[in-house]
Specification:
The protein contains 4 helices and 16 strands. It is an alpha+beta fold. The protein has 2 domains: 114 residues, Roll (2,3-Dihydroxybiphenyl 1,2-Dioxygenase, domain 1), CATH 3.10.180; 120 residues, 2,3-Dihydroxybiphenyl 1,2-Dioxygenase, domain 1 (Roll). It comes from Streptomyces sannanensis.
Length: 259
């Protein structure tokens, strides 16, 4: 049985053209270690670990048309039923539920605004074994231009309780699990409206955040390792954050909790 509630972010992975280069970058940046042997039958999918606990996945691109990007997965107890609800709520199923050996069942979908996400029905692979600790997942948000359709989509699909964040210059909403009081303290993920800071050609997307103890230092280290600082460190309601790109162009964010 999965230990993540329905709709909770339960896994994240990055699709890369050069798996070895990705292991070098993330291994140095976050002190990750990796599967000693990746199975050819699963496309050499590689699990990353921090202190022996599973924190993320690295995927070798099989097709050059695939984006070099991080992806997020939401937990479900029934992938087939969830994909049906996705279509009924106005989303689109890109890849129907597929059994991944003994590990679980996955599907890929897009919300009404076009942001792509995965769903995961756990088998032997339950998802993250470490979260909100250094070098592990801590947050995700969907960047969209269509909140009028996207907000009710996720709130009806998973029963999320939404609350707008009172902060100037951004249109941001947090989502808490069904039955929880809304707010930052209980939130699982967020929604951000893409404004002028986003290039018009950038599609709606999810941004994955990894927890760090030193946001500024991590950003500098990412640049030293061949990555890029897309948005320099800034202090926010949630903590100090920076948006980075790895040495192959996949974007992610880092978050340092502030006292």
């Amino acid at each position: 049985m999965a230990r993540f509630a329905e709709g909770a972010p339960c896994w994240a992975d990055v699709t890369l053209p050069d798996l070895a280069a990705g292991k070098r970058f993330y291994g140095e940046l976050f002190e990750w270690t990796f599967d000693e042997e990746a199975d050819e039958a699963y496309g050499y999918y590689t699990n990353a670990f921090r202190d022996g606990k599973r924190v993320a996945g690295l995927v070798a691109k099989r097709d050059g048309r695939m984006p070099t990007a991080w992806g997020i997965y939401f937990a479900t107890s029934d992938a087939i039923a969830l994909t049906t609800r996705i279509e009924e709520a106005g989303g689109r199923v890109i890849m129907a539920p597929m059994q991944v050996g003994p590990y679980g069942t996955m599907a890929v979908a897009a919300d009404p605004g076009g942001a792509v996400f995965g769903i995961w029905q756990a088998g032997a692979h339950a998802g993250f074994e470490r979260i909100r600790e250094p070098g592990s997942f801590c947050w995700t948000e969907v960047n969209t231009r269509d909140k009028e359709r996207v907000d009710p989509f996720y709130e009806s699909l998973f029963g999320f309780v939404g609350q707008d964040v009172d902060e100037e210059d951004i249109d941001y909403r947090t989502w808490s699990p069904v039955g929880s009081p809304p707010g930052v303290e209980t939130a699982l993920l967020g929604r951000n409206v893409m404004g002028d800071a986003f290039p018009p050609e950038m599609p709606p997307h999810f941004l994955v955040y990894l927890f760090v103890e030193d946001c500024d230092g991590t950003a500098d280290e990412a640049a030293r390792l061949g990555g890029r600082i897309s948005a320099p460190p800034v202090s926010t309601t949630f903590g100090r954050i920076a948006v980075l790109a790895d040495n192959q162009g996949a974007s992610f964010a880092v978050l340092e909790e502030l006292e």
